[in-house]
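Retro notes
What went well: the complex prediction finally ran end to end.
Inputs used:
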Amino acid sequence: MRTNRLLAIAAICAAGSASAFCGFYVAKADATLFNDRSEVILVRDGQRTIITMSNDFKGNVKDFAMVIPVPTILQRNDIRIVERRVFGALDAYSAPRLVEYWDENPCQRWEYAENEMLMDVMPTKSTGMSRLFKEKATKDYGVTIEAQYSVGEYDILILGAKESNGLEQWLLDNGYKIPTTAHDVLDPYIKSGLKFFVVKVDLERMQQSGFEFLRPIQVAFESEKFMLPIRLGMANSSGVQDMIVYAFTRTGRVECVNYRTVKVPSDRNIPLFTKEKFGPFYKDLFDRNWKQEGKNAIALEYAWNVTPSWDGMKCDPCVGPPPMPAEFAEAGVDWALPQGGGGQVFFTRLHVRYGREKFPQDLFFQVTPNTENFQARYILTHPAEGDLSCSAGQDYLETLFYKRTREMDELYALTGWDLSNDRKYMEEVKGKMSPERRNGLEMPYAPVDGPNDDGGNDGGGSGIPTMIMILGLAALLIGVFMQRSAREPQMN
Amino acid sequence: MLAQLRSFAMLSPLQFLQRDARHFQILFLGIFLIYGTLELQWDTEWIRYFTLMGTCLIVQTVFIEWKGMPWTALKSAAITGLGLCLLFHATSISTLVLAASIAISSKFLVRIKGKHVLNPANIGIVGALLLADDAWVSPGQWGSGPALVFLVAAAGLMVLLRVGRIDTSVAFLLTFSLLDLGRTVLYLGWGMDVWAHRLMNGSLLLFTFFMITDPMTTPNATKARIVWSILIAVITFAISTFAYIHTAPVWALAVLCSITPILDLAFKGERFSWLPGTNDNSSTGSTGTHGRSGVPSMTSSIIPIKP
C-alpha cells in the first residue's frame, strides 16, 4: 500500500507542479542504439518547411553522395550546413527515459527524497560559408542544372530532369554512385515536378575545414508538400532502416497522414535489474512493439511544448536540457527566438522503422493542434530498506511481492525476454517475510517460466486474437444477414 | 415506452438488429471504435467520446421535443456521434460540443422540402475545422491494409444492402480508384502497391462505406446518386492530389451535399425512410412490419432533458 501511495504521489507530482522534479533520471535510450539509422529535423511553419539531415555515413567520404528530391529550386540562402551537435542535443532531450523512485519504510518513516537536475546549456553558433564554383555538363541528358552551390565541405547541385534514364545516366557519368533500384522511383519524382538536390563532398575543402565527420545539411523551401521522400533512400538499403524525426511546429504535434502514428508503451513499472540493460530493453521493446503494430506504424516517442517563454515544465524528468535558443537557431525555428517574435513551439519526436515491403508510400505529415505532452518513460522502484518486521512492514512486503510479479509480467510483455533466471527478484522479497505471511501468498501466474516466444515474424502479439474475433463476428453477422434477407422481403 | 421496450425484449438480438438498419450501423461503428482502441492503440479518450455522444443525443432530444418526433430518431444521433468519435479530434471540450451541435442541428435547421441537406457528421467536422483552431482529423489513424478493407467493407455492405445505397459507395470508390490508378501508376509510374496502399486507407474506406452513404442526405434517385458520388470522387481526387489536402473527402462531401436538392429536383426518386410508417420518415408508402403507431405518446413520459 505504501508503495502505491508513493507512486501515486509521484504521479501527481509528474502531472502537476511546474517546478518540482519527480524521480531521478538514470538512463536514456538514445538514437545511437539503432544501427542503420538517420536523423532528420523537420520544421514546419505554414507552407515553409526546413529539413536538416544528419547521416551516419560510414564509408570513405569520397564515396559519399546524396540525392534528395525537393519540391522547389533552392536558392543559396536556403541551404546551410549546421553543427552535428544540435542532433545530439535534441536526441538527449527527447530520448526514452528511465526513472527511479524509492519506497518509504513503513516501519521507520523516511522523507521522500527529491532531486534537482542541473540544466547544462552549451552555446553553439551557426555556420554558413559559401563559395560558388562551376561544373560542366558535357552531354545533353535531358538534365538541367538549375543551380549549383558550394556550401561548406559540400558541392551541391539542384537538378531538374525530363526523364529518369537521362538523370540516372548523368549521375553515373558524373561519378555519383546510385543503386540500380533508384530507377523505379526517379521517374515518379520527376513527373511530380520534384527537383533533385545532389550532394558530393569536396575532399580538399573537407580537409581544410578540419571536420572529421560530414556535417548535417539543411534546406528550406516553401511548399504545400509536407513530406519526407523515403523511397529513394530505401533503394540504398535492404531490410529495414530507422529514422528519428525531430519536428518543430507552432501549433502542436506532427503526425503522419498515410501511416499510423502510435505512442510507444510508456509509464510502465519494470524490475530494478532492467537498469543495467536499459539500452537493450528499449531496443527490444521498440522492436516488439513495431512488430505488434504490423511493422507499418510510426512510433511517437516524445511530444512536448518547448516554447522558450513558457515557464511550464519542459520535461519530466529531463534526460537532457530542453532545446535552447542555440538549438532553435540551428534547426531553423526562427519564430522561437526573441527576434522572431518568441512564438509557441511544439516539439515532436517520431521514430520510423521502415522497409520497402510495408512502406510503399513516402511519408506525408500534417501539423495538428494537439498539444498533449507525451514521453517514453519507464519506472524503477527501489524497495524500502531496514527492518520490516513490523505488521505494516509485512503488509508492505506482501504488496511488494505482488508488485514485483506485475513488473516481471510487464517486462515480459514489453520485451519478450526469457526471465526464468530472474525469479530471485521475487524470491528475495519472500525471504524477508515471516513464514506465515510467506505461506499465505497466492502463487503468481507470472509467465516468467515461459520461453522467449518473440519470433521474428509475429505480426500481431496480443492484437491477433482481437482482430480474428472482430473479423469473425463480422463474417458471422454477414452470413446470418444474407440468410435472413433471402427469406424476408426487402424493407424498402 | 414500456410497451416498446417489452416488444424489443421479446425480439432475439438478430430480430432486433434486423428491425432497423441503424441498429447495424450502431453495432458496426461501435465495433470500429473498439477495434481502434484495442487493436490500433488509439488513445482512449473517454471525455471526447462522452462529449460527442452526449452532445449529439442532447441536441437531438431537444429537437425531438420541439418537432414532436418519435424517440427512435435518437438512433440517428447515436450514429452521428459515433461517426464523430471515429473521425474527429479537438483539444477543447467546447470545440467537441460545437462540432456535435452543428452536426445535429444542421439536420433540423437546414432543410429543403422537408429533407435535410447536409450530411450531419460531415458538416459537424467541416464546421468545427472552419470555426475552431483546435480541431483536426487524423487521416492516418486507421492505417492501411487488407484486413481493414475486409472489416469496413463487409460491415458497410451489410448496412448498404439494407438501405439500398450501395450504388453510392461503388460509384465513389470506382471513380476514385480509377483516377488514382491513372495518376499514381500510369502517369507517375509508381508500383501498384503504392496505389493499393492509398486505396486501403481506413479513413477513406470509412468515408466510402459509412459517411457518403447516409441515405437521408444522398439524392433520392439512383442515377442522381451515381452522378453525385462520381463528382465527390473527382473533387476528392483533385484536392488531395494537387493541393495535398489530406482531409479532401470531407470537404468534397460538404460541397456536394449542397447540390443534392438540385439533383433531387432534376431526378425524381423515392425519399428514404428508416422506419416506414412512422412520422420521422415520410413518403415511403410501405408500413409493413416495421411501422409502429403511437410512438410519440408512449415516449412523452420520459423527457428528462431540457436545454
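What we learned: The first strand of chain A starts at residue 24 and ends at 28.
What to try next: split runs per interface for comparison.
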